[in-house]
């Protein structure tokens, strides 16, 4: 499993869209229509994620943040990490904040942020399979329909099975695994991301979409990067 690359940018959480449209591109391929009956359909295991961030409102400092992330993408490889924008339905929440070693907090009573606990892969799984065994953290509340992350890739859960003799779960996902999994690989449950690319032509056009130089609304489409 390829870990997150710290050199790649992440789409700023503050540049939130009004709507997020996750799409699995071409999950089925359809053949020519015969004279009698329906056209044959074959599942396409290579269907890629497509994400549309709809109606992002830009004003004040968000205009600069938007320009900065797009210019950085164009100046580098074109790839970035896109969050799945589904924190409210995540199976776990971040742990409570912690103070200093002596128990003290900051002057404004704030604490150090804590990460959300991750799950662990409990058995090796081959590339392109749609099931793997996971040991979830005790605080997890897993459900079909949630998103999870494995390294640079994101997946949707469509089924869960309890495994007798412990707390492990057999997790069924789509799309199929982009990479093989090893025992001990971490499963991101709170903040999964997907390695994507933005259409550079689209991005360049959107840089100047401001009304009277003050405010703008943009929509961008991202496609899962190759694996």
Topology:
Blueprint: E1 19-24, E2 28-30, E3 41-43, E4 49-59, H1 61-75, E5 79-83, E6 119-121, E7 131-135, E8 147-150, E9 153-162, E10 169-174, E11 186-187, E12 193-198, H2 200-206, E13 215-224
Antiparallel strand pairs: 1-4, 2-3, 4-13, 5-12, 6-7, 6-11, 7-10, 8-9, 9-10, 12-13
How would you characterize the overall build of this protein?
This protein is mainly β. It contains two helices and 13 strands; from the N terminus they run ββββαββββββββαβ. It has two domains: 1-31 and 41-85 and 193-227, Phosphorylase Kinase, domain 1 (2-Layer Sandwich); 117-190, Elongation Factor Tu (Ef-tu), domain 3 (Beta Barrel). Strands 8-9-10-7-6-11 form a six-stranded antiparallel β-sheet, with no helix packed on it. Strands 1-4-13-12-5 form a five-stranded antiparallel β-sheet. A two-stranded antiparallel sheet has the order 2-3. The longest helix is centred in the first third of the chain and has 15 residues, at 61-75.
Give keywords.
Elongation Factor Tu (Ef-tu), domain 3, single chain, mainly beta, 227 residues, 33% strand, five-stranded antiparallel β-sheet, six-stranded antiparallel β-sheet, Phosphorylase Kinase, domain 1
